[in-house]
Amino acid sequence: MFTRNLLDQPASRRRVLQGAAATAALSGAGLAAPAAAAADPQLAAALTTIANQILQRSPEQATLLGMDKGANAGLASRLSDGSYAGEAEDRRVYATASRLLGTIPRAGLTGSDINNYDSVTWALGIAAEGEKFDFGYSGTSGGIPYVVSQQNGTYQQAAEFLDTYHRVEDAAGAEAYLSRLDQVGKQLDDETTRIIADSGKGVIPPDFIVANTLGQQTELRGVPAAQSKFVTSIATRAKKLGLPDPTARALAIVEGKIYPALDHQINVLKALKTNSDAGMWKLPQGEAYYQYLLKSQTTTSLSAAEIHKTGWEQNRAIEAEMDKILQAQGLTQGSVGARTAALNADKRFLQPDSDAGRAAVIAACQGVLDRIRPRLGRISKLGLRADVQVKRVPVDIQDGAGLGYMNFASTDGKRPAIYYINLKKMDYWPSWTLASLTAHEGIPGHAWQGAYLAEHPDIVSPMAQLIGFNAFVEGWALYAEQLVDEDGFYADDPFGRLGYLNAQRFRAVRLIVDTGLHAMRWTREKAIATMVAETGRSTGSVTSEIDRYCASPGQACGYKIGHNEILKQRARAKALLGPKFDVRDYNDALVETGGVPLSALPGVVDRMIAKVKAA
After folding, report:
1. Which residues fall within 8 angstroms of residue 318, CB to CB, at 6 or more apart?
2. Domain assignment present for 351
3. What pTM was computed for the model?
4. Is 229 within a domain?
5. Domain assignment of residue 254, given as a range
6. pLDDT digits (tens, 9 = 90+) for 108-125
7. Residue 190 located in a structural domain
8. Domain total for the chain?
9. I need a labelling partner for 224 at 20 to 30 A (CA). Which of 158, 350, 426, 449 fits?
10. 388-392 and 142-144: which strand pairing?
């Protein structure tokens, strides 16, 4: 699960939704005109202008990318504006960008310029389409219905962002930290204002989301201010650098601004009149809103019914493949889901519920990365460094976090990609499931795709860095799991291959339950029971997943829909190229785009085919 938004937990984080284009910063501090990012000079200038404008709207993205320096140094002291006025300014910037792009004739473009033009046009169109729904958040990556949830909101993001991503290398960095800390309370208050307004429109999270959110907020609020990460992070780093002790200043901000704002948000959430209805059907324009979310997250026009049907068909096909492996291992009794559940609970595959056990899981993930790396030459010709660090999801946000997610590396080379794994419960991750997860989040999955953007800022379009198309990004990572299998990684590991197939099945079942919840009025309980029965995963881990789909509708459908289209286009390229087909050419053509909507993928492949034929 990739998260360009501060941390997938799903692409639900607002900073990605409203500031996806900010990643354009990869072309360089100050965003000088990209040398080779666009062959057409008019397009190059337009993309640079758009990227600069959107970068200013998303300071957190600038920090994540290592671009809050030089001409953009002022961004290191700011947080993004989540108020209604801030949203209006975001929309003004998007509209201005659309008009500028509209002055460039598409017919005159060639090669990757077409990819760039189509991608930015599509993303800006999605942002405009989202404006007709006056609740939640929307932007270039789609929307989320609830301003705050168990996986989204300032309470969830701010401390981890400041501690892990905000750089404190000198006195200026420490002052910038304190400046940002001073803005956290306002971000909380702006969210609370929106929660109240949305509730008046009938947009209220289901009771189980509110309960989980309040549980995490109450735990956060229960930490004495002096012991909070907000204070200890800056105090520890300042001490190491020999800087004046900032503890008193940080403590005053937390006690005087952040905790009172958090108290207010907690009280507002407690006062909401909630019920257990889980789906988008209950919201204003619910059916149209969910279709908009599906469009933005799958970058297709597929209906909920079509996606639901695809999910059941592919689920059954993968189930048959899993049955063969289970039979060969002497596991013959019960459904495939039941036999998988038994393996999930098998102590042979579980680490103890202890610090040592969690360290062993992280080490196992690192070991998978080390074993995959020598195979990359058979998957790609790009020769990327693609450094990856494996970390545990922070304990203070693990209750609402996804089971696994990744943040791209910074473009200045100072921070590798960070692959987070949720170790709240050890039965989430039996050892036979770790290889597939690691291929997805690490290499050749998200970290590999992101490494191309980070390691080639001189040849990547500024906007390509910025727009994270969910179906492409997650489809690529799911396809990456398959590439590892096709390369023989599981040749001597039948249980590992079973884990890979179960991960594929899990994504097929996501199509079923997401559409079931939001278009077919399934209850949360029915969605949980269906996913447990089909995948064999523990009730606890599945409950976390289902709740995620309720907070970020449609996002989970992007994985398998993206994977399906990538495979469809690969089969087409192979048929047309015959003996000239090299899977590395195909893979690299996709990665080099930086990400496109699926509707643009056939054109990308057509140009790859023409290039190979010409060579």
Report:
1. 501, 504, 505, 508
2. no
3. 0.90
4. yes
5. 147-204+207-274
6. 999 889 988 999 999 999
7. yes
8. 1
9. 426
10. unpaired
